[in-house]
Design goal:
Elements lengths: L7 E4 L2 E14 L8 E2 L11 E5 L22 E2 L8 E2 L5 E2 L6 E7 L2 E6 L2 E6 L4 E7 L4 E7 L2 E6 L2 E6 L4 E6 L5 E5 L2 E5 L4 E5 L9 E5 L7 E8 L5 E7 L2 E6 L4 E8 L10 E3 L2 E6 L2 E5 L4 E3 L15 E7 L4 E8 L15 H4 L5 E8 L5 E7 L4 E9 L2 E8 L2 E6 L18 E5 L12 E11 L5 E8 L6 E6 L3 E6 L6 E3 L2 E8 L9 E11 L5 E9 L3 H6 L3 H13 L4 E7 L2 E18 L4 E10 L3
Parallel strand pairs: 3-4
Antiparallel strand pairs: 1-2, 1-44, 2-43, 4-42, 5-35, 6-42, 7-34, 8-9, 9-10, 10-11, 12-13, 13-14, 14-15, 16-17, 17-18, 18-19, 20-21, 21-22, 22-23, 24-25, 25-26, 26-27, 28-29, 29-30, 30-31, 32-33, 33-34, 35-41, 36-39, 36-40, 36-42, 37-38, 37-41, 43-46, 44-45, 45-46
Length: 608
């Protein structure tokens, strides 16, 4: 049994004679219906499926996208995606070449900086820094108290009177951190003891206020925040958690925010009534009732070249900022070869780098990336000289970014100035069917491109690092690009790289409304057969040596078993064998009690 020849097939191990119209073969794989991933309102293709990239407000940090959750997320990039359209990031402007700034702060509508233990003031008129004098000892902290600037070092305290332009240096009153509470100035000294005074110019006026129960250097910062009763009190940010200070008992008490001990604790900040404490690449958000992890290490994290730590959190008006400091060994992994003019800005192959991420409270976006630096300095959002800016410092100098007061759309800001270029890399998308082949056909780009500007699109395939250039748009409107020529390009997963450049005018930038990848889902072609069997005697006895009623019984058993079986038929090239399943059995011209006649059998090919 099971041997085929002309006019005989084998089905489920049994030979059957064919009727005059013996065998019909047809492709049974259905054409998958069109699907739209993303904003379906931008779908305008009748047959082709579409992946619409138009909303990037969800922020960075997703490398492998889930279509049910990550429609507005991307992997990494510097383009501004916080609003309806994608555009260039704000312009980062050079503000001089001071040494690495240890602390920025504002006082009486002026911007100050402490660098190399020297106090500087920014002069907006001359666009330069004026030297106000130096302090002795290694810088620790600064505070504004009683209308004066108080600078704490490891060996003493220095007070600068802005009105008199004079210094008062108090040796012996050094420490780690300063804090202001209840009209008093507090400091933690080198032995973790708390002191307070109402006259920092008098070294003998410091009063003991207890001791933090830990070794020296354990406390990193003193900051005012709510205690469990809802009162504002001083808190100490330590290597293992947050501690509330009780002035009456002169003791520190642990709060609900505790974490494993580490020296990777950065400077905390209060934003919209909640305390943000950076630990490594994590950021803990604390509000006395709950602790939430909100750092850039969520989801798929950050690219390897930014896998350092959060140096500090900075509170702004509409945004808060995370300052990333990364230290890598010289000669580390080089940047991947993408062939793009902006590859160094996306993946810098340098030993040390840094970045500033901005967040409106629900997502992270890259504000600026500092490339080729040896050290990342302080960052602060400050008002001064009639401006509101984010001030930053690193080993290359001081820089600033103009900030709006609130969540302002840069496209509606007539004074907005944009960076010269930027790029964004989407997450990898498998279109919700990771193991199914897709056929990419084209990319549609809808953009507003002023004269002199350019929007370019690249595509990456199947988790490889290289990029294929698709095309550039230099005029406003919708532009369609074909992928893979006439045949298209087969892929399993894809991602996009969108690069932008502006012209010479920093106030004019391109914007992207949408970028649409069109494709077909192309499952493997499977075959089906319609076999017509002549199950009558004496034909069955003469052809296969089995009476018709026995073949009918075996055929019905095979159909009712609901199992898979083999199907063999004779072809000019020999015997063809497939694994099949019976989907339909129809008897016609049946005569007599043994149901002899013609039987039509429908089969489908199985993949496994």
């Amino acid at each position: 049994m099971g041997q085929t020849r002309e006019g005989v097939i084998s089905l489920y191990g049994v030979n059957y004679p064919l009727a005059q119209r013996p065998l019909i073969r047809r492709g049974i794989t259905p054409f998958p219906q069109k699907v739209v991933t993303g904003d379906y309102r931008r779908s305008d293709h009748v047959v082709e499926s579409e992946w619409v990239s138009s909303d990037f407000t969800g922020g960075l940090g997703v490398l492998f996208a889930d279509p049910t959750r990550h429609l507005d997320r991307y992997w990494f990039g510097s383009l501004d995606g916080r609003y309806r359209y994608l555009t260039l990031p704000p312009l980062v402007e050079n503000r001089g070449t001071l040494p690495v700034v240890q602390r920025f702060f504002s006082f009486a509508d002026r911007i100050y900086a402490i660098a190399a233990e020297t106090l500087y003031r920014w002069e907006e008129g001359t666009q330069s820094w004026s030297n106000l004098g130096a302090v002795s000892g290694a810088f620790s902290d600064v505070a504004i108290y009683d209308g004066k600037i108080v600078i704490l070092t490891t060996t003493g305290t220095s007070v600068y009177d802005v009105d008199l332009a004079s210094w008062t240096h108090v040796p012996g009153a050094g420490g780690f951190a300063l804090g202001v509470w209840d009209d008093k100035l507090f400091r933690i000294d080198m032995q973790n003891r708390m002191w307070w005074t109402i006259d920092p110019t008098d070294g003998s006026s410091w009063q003991p206020g207890g001791k933090f129960p830990a070794p020296p250097g354990y406390t990193r910062q003193i900051i005012s925040y709510f205690d469990a009763a809802g009162d504002i009190v001083l808190h100490a940010v330590a290597r293992d958690g947050l501690y509330a200070y009780d002035f009456a008992s002169r003791r520190f008490y642990p709060t609900g925010l505790q974490y494993p001990e580490t020296d990777q604790v950065g400077r905390a900040a209060v934003w919209r009534g909640e305390l943000y404490v950076p630990v490594g690449l994590s950021i803990y958000k604390y509000n006395t009732n709950a602790v939430t992890v909100v750092g850039p290490d969520r989801d798929d994290g950050l690219p390897a070249h930014l896998s350092g730590r959060v140096q500090q959190v900075v509170a702004g008006h509409g945004l808060w900022f995370a300052v990333i400091a990364v230290a890598r060994e010289a000669g580390g992994a080089p940047a991947p070869e993408t062939g793009l003019p902006i590859e160094a800005a996306l993946f810098p192959g340098v030993s040390v780098t840094g970045a500033v991420l901005m967040s409106p409270g629900i997502a992270f976006h890259l504000l600026t990336q500092r490339i080729g630096i040896a050290e990342m300095g302080d960052v602060a959002a400050l008002s001064g000289n009639g401006t509101y800016r984010l001030w930053g410092s690193d080993s290359l100098g001081v820089w600033s970014v103009d900030l709006p007061v609130g969540l302002h759309n840069p496209l509606q800001n007539p004074t907005q100035r944009y960076a010269a270029e930027g790029a964004l890399i989407t997450a990898w998308w498998d279109m919700g069917w990771s193991e199914l082949d897709k056929l990419a056909l084209g990319i549609d780009v809808d953009a507003v491109v002023p004269e002199g500007c350019e929007v370019s699109v690249y595509v990456g395939w199947d988790y490889r690092e290289d990029w294929d250039y698709v095309g550039s748009v230099t005029a406003t409107g919708k532009r369609r690009f074909r992928i893979g020529g006439i045949q298209g390009h087969h892929f399993r997963a894809a991602r996009l790289l969108i690069a932008m450049r502006r012209g010479t005018d920093p106030s004019v930038a391109p914007l992207l409304r949408s970028c649409v990848l069109t494709y077909l889902r192309v499952p493997r072609l499977l075959w089906g057969w319609e076999v017509s069997l002549q199950l009558t005697d004496p034909l069955c006895r003469e052809t296969v040596g089995v009476p018709a009623h026995e073949l009918i019984r075996r055929l019905e058993e095979a159909a009712t078993s609901r199992g898979a079986g083999t199907f063999r038929y004779h072809d000019e090239g020999g015997t063809i064998e497939r694994r099949v399943f019976i989907t339909e059995l129809v008897a016609s011209e049946v005569q007599g009690p043994r149901r002899e006649g013609r039987y039509s059998v429908s089969l489908i090919e199985l993949e496994s």
